[in-house]
DNA sequence: GAAGATCCTTACAAAATCAC
DNA sequence: GTGATTTTGTAAGGATCTTC
């Protein structure tokens, strides 16, 4: 900000920084007397530097505006009056001494009585960085500014709004001095950083400095070599997940320095903390009532327009939009225009005409081309209310087109999923039908499956007696039944390899006859969890104890009758374990093979 | 009947638990 | 503490089935 411009802004009568709207009114002599009166009052207040309240520029979700601020050189800064904060003129400023008179002036511009409630004395001042703190009513539906006492804290009994409750976490706005931050930036070599980026070659595309709008500003007469431009950004965030309290920083990013420097030299202009969205506040000419309607679009509040889904919401043209039915309600849509040219583009001249029309209507609630009143940003020098706006990336793109595309994709996926679910249900029905057939067959031929091992061994006995192979366990079983048990027996605690294999084969045959691979692969001998099983899965259930005892008894009987040996029952256990292991391995092998086939099919 | 694929059996190792 | 037991995994080889 140049020293000259800054001084002009600080010490002039304020007319040069009036909004175009007010200047226009001045030119047309519609309200010449009242405006002059206002200017006179405000200028006095500014020179006394008693208030910074008008400097608070609250924006709302994900809005970005471009404005041009004349800069000061390093040298100029030392000659500049060191204000506590940078003063941007506002028609709402008033001194605390002539409160009543100022209230009348404010009411001429904005009928919102809430604006009358704020005075500089209602700020809590900080000794560090000259931060001002403005307390706002914590009530959800009230944006009244709390009057503060001598200690800087809100007094309990408030003239307007609700009484201050010091047991509740307060809502407040921190107003940080922009000028002081800007000085720090310049003291840190800001001018040098600017010179580094002032080498646009006309061909290389960048994020900001190669933009047409930016180049137009830079190449125009309104800027000087030491001019800095800013992007204004604001968005809100919760302090932590599920917190009712959030904070909304209003920040300025200096365009005219390298990207990394932009991130390290951001200007924090104001900070809202509270359990609700930030009020337009006494610093802006937006009514509190309209602010209550604000649900997402800060841009509309701070530029004083309708909401994003309102009529003529496009920031760049006068497309009014069309109402379409959505569900049980309706919504405004902006279909692609088929005519060419489509709709006239917005211009600053048309914007001023709209503001004039509004002033004639004197009805704040009626919007003209979605404009309800002059934007407070118009008070900024060289601020183009139309060109300064950039597309609302968050709401127009992320929550607009992209959201629709994602939803469309999700719907396709959901339809596909429903088809698969239906096919799966048909397969399940088929399986259920086959199971019923199997059950029916079992019932008509009960000898196919035994209900217990004991019952099965009885059936097995009947079958074995019809076989003639002496080496089979079946015949051995028959043999063991017919052998004279009075012969002397040999007690065996270990078996040689040949007999061990024979025992394994006998047990394999018995188990194969009575259980399928699913049952055997899903049971272990004892039901204990495998030491090598690191998963959290439960251990396999134990094999039925009575069945183990039956097999052991049968094997012992067989050995006794076949080989005239009394075997140690513990010799049977490894054979059972080995069989269960083989089925387990086989099942795993099949599953692995199927998985590989599925992978191959999918590829 | 030969060749290949698939399944089963066996041996061995690792790790944890249990009984002594 | 030590050895036995149990469970699981891997690898190798054999048995069985399928195809030609």
UniProtKB/TrEMBL annotation:
GO terms for biological process: negative regulation of Notch signaling pathway; positive regulation of neuron differentiation. It is found in: Nucleus. Signal peptide: none annotated. InterPro entries: BEND6-like. PANTHER family: BEN DOMAIN-CONTAINING PROTEIN 6. Residues 88-109 are annotated as: Disordered. The lineage of its organism: Eukaryota, Metazoa, Ecdysozoa, Arthropoda, Crustacea. Its main location: nucleus. This is Uncharacterized protein. Residues 96-107 have a biased composition (Acidic residues). Coiled coil: none annotated. Keywords: Nucleus, Repressor, Transcription, Transcription regulation. GO terms for molecular function: transcription corepressor activity. Gene3D superfamilies: BEN domain (1.10.10.2590).
């Amino acid at each position: 900000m140049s020293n000259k411009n800054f001084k002009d802004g600080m010490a002039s009568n304020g007319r040069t920084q009036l909004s175009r709207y007010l200047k226009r009114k001045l030119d047309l002599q519609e309200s010449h007397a009242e405006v002059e009166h206002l200017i006179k009052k405000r200028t006095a207040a500014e020179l006394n530097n008693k208030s910074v309240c008008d400097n608070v520029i609250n924006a709302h979700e994900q809005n970005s505006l471009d404005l041009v601020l004349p800069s000061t050189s390093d040298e100029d800064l030392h000659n500049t009056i060191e204000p506590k904060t940078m003063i941007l003129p506002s028609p709402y400023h008033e001194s605390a001494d002539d409160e009543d008179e100022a209230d009348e002036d404010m009411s001429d511009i904005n009928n919102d009585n809430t604006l009358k409630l704020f005075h500089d004395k209602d700020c809590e001042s900080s000794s560090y960085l000259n931060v001002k703190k403005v307390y706002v009513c914590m009530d959800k539906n009230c944006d009244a500014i709390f009057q503060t006492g001598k200690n800087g804290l809100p007094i309990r009994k408030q003239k307007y709004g609700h009484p201050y409750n010091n047991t509740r976490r307060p809502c407040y706005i921190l107003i940080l001095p922009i000028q002081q931050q800007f000085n720090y930036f310049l003291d840190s070599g800001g001018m040098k950083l600017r010179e580094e980026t002032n080498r646009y070659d006309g061909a290389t595309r960048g994020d900001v400095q190669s933009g047409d709008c930016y180049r137009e500003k830079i190449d125009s007469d309104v800027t000087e070599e030491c001019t800095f431009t800013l992007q204004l950004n604001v968005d809100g965030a919760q302090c932590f997940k599920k917190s009712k309290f959030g904070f909304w920083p209003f920040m300025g990013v200096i365009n005219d320095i390298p990207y990394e420097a932009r991130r390290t030299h951001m200007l924090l202009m104001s900070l809202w903390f509270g359990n609700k969205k930030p009020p337009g506040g006494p610093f802006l000419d937006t009514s509190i009532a309209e602010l209550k309607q604000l649900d997402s679009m800060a841009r509309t509040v701070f530029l004083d327009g309708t909401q994003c889904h309102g009529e003529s919401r496009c920031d760049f043209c006068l497309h009014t939009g069309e109402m379409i039915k959505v569900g049980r309600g309706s919504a405004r849509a902006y279909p692609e225009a088929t005519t060419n040219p489509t709709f006239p583009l917005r211009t600053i001249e048309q914007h001023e005409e709209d503001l004039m029309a509004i002033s004639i209507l004197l009805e704040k609630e009626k919007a003209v081309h979605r404009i309800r009143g002059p934007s407070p940003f118009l008070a900024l020098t060289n601020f183009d209310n139309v060109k300064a706006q950039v597309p609302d990336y968050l709401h127009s793109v992320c929550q607009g087109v992209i959201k629709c595309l994602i939803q469309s994709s999700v719907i396709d996926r959901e339809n596909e999923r429903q088809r698969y679910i239906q096919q799966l249900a048909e397969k399940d029905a088929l399986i259920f039908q086959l199971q019923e057939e199997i059950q029916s067959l079992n019932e008509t031929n009960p000898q196919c499956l035994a209900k217990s091992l004991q019952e099965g061994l009885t059936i097995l006995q009947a079958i074995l007696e019809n076989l003639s192979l002496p080496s089979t366990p079946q015949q051995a079983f028959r043999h063991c039944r017919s052998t004279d048990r009075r012969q002397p027996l040999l007690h065996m605690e270990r078996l040689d390899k040949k007999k061990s294999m024979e025992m394994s084969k006998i047990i394999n045959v018995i188990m194969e006859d009575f259980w399928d691979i699913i049952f055997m692969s899903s049971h272990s001998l004892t039901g204990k969890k495998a030491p090598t099983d690191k998963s959290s899965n439960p251990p396999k259930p134990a094999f039925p104890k009575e069945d183990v005892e039956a097999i052991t008894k049968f094997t012992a009987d067989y050995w006794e009758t076949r080989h005239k040996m009394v075997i140690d029952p513990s010799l049977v256990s490894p054979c059972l374990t080995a069989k269960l292991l083989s089925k387990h391995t086989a099942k795993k092998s099949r599953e692995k093979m199927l998985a590989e086939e599925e992978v191959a099919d999918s590829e």
